[in-house]
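Appendix B. Raw example, untouched.
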Amino acid sequence: MAIPPSAQSQYTPSQSNLDARKWYQDAKFGMFIHWGIYSELADGEWVMEVRHMSGGDYQKLAPQFYPVKFDPKQWVSLAKAAGMKYITVTARHHDGFSMFETKQSDWNIVQRTPYAKDAIRMLADECHKQGLRIFFYYSQLDWHHPHYFPLGNTGYAAGRAKSGDWNRYIAFMNAQLTELLSNYGEVSGIWFDGMWDKPDADWHLTETYDLIHRLQPQALIVANHHKKPIPGEDVQTFERDLPGENKSGFSSESTIGDLPLETSDTVNGSWGYNLTDNNFKSPRELVHYLVRAAGRNANLLLNVGPMPNGEIPAEAMSRLEGIGKWLDKYGESIYGTRGGPTSPSPWGVTTKKGNTVYVHVLEASEPGIVLPGMKVKSASLMLTGAPVTFSQNETGLIIKLPPRSADEFDQVIVLQLIEK
């Protein structure tokens, strides 16, 4: 399942792109939003494929889509309160339905639904107003378009004709991307998904990536193809996995490259709205995931799946509020940091900013921890500034852990390094 290396082999990022990469690494935390007409069936974003729905049956969802409770101001405000710095929203998912106004097809929210409004424009405008950056998720896989042919590993129940012109499909995608990058103000990135459906196809990546970097040079290309980064891409992303791990099974062939890193995961177990999925992670679990990501020099893109009426489920909102309260206290140890000098351990991770190291003790079973090869002049608790007992020898730094309360998600100890 190797992806052909048909991308910008000579790609040199612009200064604005390099600046955007640094901003991205500093931002650390973003909101992922999976929302479309699939939410009406309340069974996740793959419902068309999972239920083997024909294209004709699936299209009956569009005339029923009328999200009377959609409030982009509330969505963006919630993301900001959670400490998130950007939003990545599904402009188009695998069902091929565009949540934005497009001239390339009438299969979109403005022309096919009674709502008849460009939800992506509304959200992008609100992000610009409130100072959050906007990324557009765009599926390269399409279960609807007649020229997505030959089919890949999915989409056979849709009932499409067994013919098509692949080059016309590529031209369609690039025309839609041109719209997204021309009509919505500054776009901070395009988040691609679905190339894994046809891993051996010629995706014309050179043409597509060049188009994006030409229209908005600062825009970051994030490709969720579960492989080593391809020239022309700006961020390496890991689905449901921390960099270097493969618990999801998606990262078995993916080595960590030199690009900014990201991991994406869900508040519960589903990307799109799922009525019966009550497996919501606790605020503690989510904070731990954010911290472990930062300790691996990666961002966390945390997903919510809004309901068909446009509301974000209350359970998701409460989790985001919990993370926001934690970041209000400890955000300094996350934002603007890079992965620390100590390798991630079962007990936790370290982050670093200048000569300051933040030790994040998440799961301590011993009275102390050892940090090899580190020399410091002071150690203190981040929250109170109280000194922390430590000693140093040839093994490294030995920290005696202070008592902590049972509801303390993360005991953060601040170390000041001895300048060399």
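End of appendix B.
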